[in-house]
Design a protein that fits this description.
Largest sheet: 5 strands, antiparallel
Radius of gyration: 56 Å
Strand content: 5-15%
Strand order of the largest sheet: 3-4-2-1-5
Helix content: 40-55%
Order of helices and strands: HHHEEHEEE
Length: 221
């Protein structure tokens, strides 16, 4: 005996979906609206870019117009050979002045500040009972010679100390100090009485050998 068994279940059969005309028309309408919106947005963006480009073109045209007007109002001048020569001469003179200033500052030509500071220092270093009769300063003040009188030789160390305290004389050393009696005038008549002894001593203070061409000035008591 045989028996047929039907294993087919209608629930597992793939169902066919049918698109109706109404659904298709709705989908088509939505697609058309989306395309229309994208088209409008694109057109607006293109219009904005075109407006921006037009503004830039206008600004560029205005700039070129101003440039052309400036070139017409102020045409470039041709180089003047005479003016170039004057500029070159002025530059050469400026360089010479700079070189001269550097030489003066180096002290190679001697003292460029004058000797007023030295004489001011000598007046400020005054010691009672000591006075100068001669001052010699050579070159840039590297060699100074002092000649004078003192009531007592013991006053000279204090005077030398006062000299060393002056700003312009700081760092300078005196290499020699000569002390003696001043020269007496010659007596014409041997029978005449001898001149009385003067109540002071003469001194010579030298920082170095001073040439005869040094600046000299007389001192006062």
């Amino acid at each position: 005996m045989s028996q047929q068994i039907n294993l087919f279940n209608p629930r597992f059969e793939r169902k066919k979906e049918y698109v109706t005309a109404r659904t298709a028309s709705q989908a088509l309408g939505v697609l058309v609206l989306v395309l229309l919106a994208l088209s409008i947005a694109g057109q607006r963006k293109v219009a904005a870019l075109e407006a921006r480009e037009a503004g830039m073109q206008a600004a560029l045209a205005q700039g070129e117009a101003r440039r052309d007007k400036t070139m017409r109002d102020f045409p470039p001048r041709k180089k003047d050979p005479a003016l170039e020569q004057e500029v070159a001469a002025a530059e050469a003179q400026r360089q010479l002045l700079q070189d001269a200033s550097a030489v003066l500052a180096s002290g190679e030509l001697g003292n460029t500040q004058g000797y007023a500071g030295y004489f001011r220092a000598l007046s400020q270093a005054r010691v009672e009972g000591v006075w100068l009769t001669g001052v010699s300063i050579s070159g840039a003040g590297n060699a100074i010679g002092l000649q004078g009188r003192a009531l007592q030789a013991s006053l000279l160390p204090a005077y030398i100390k006062r000299l060393g305290q002056q700003e312009v004389l700081k760092g300078k050393t005196f290499s020699s100090l000569d002390i003696g009696l001043p020269e007496q005038p010659a007596v014409a008549d041997a029978k005449a009485p001898a001149a009385p002894t003067v109540p002071y001593v003469a001194f010579s203070l030298q920082s170095a050998a001073t040439p005869a061409s040094a600046a000299q000035a007389g001192g006062t008591r």
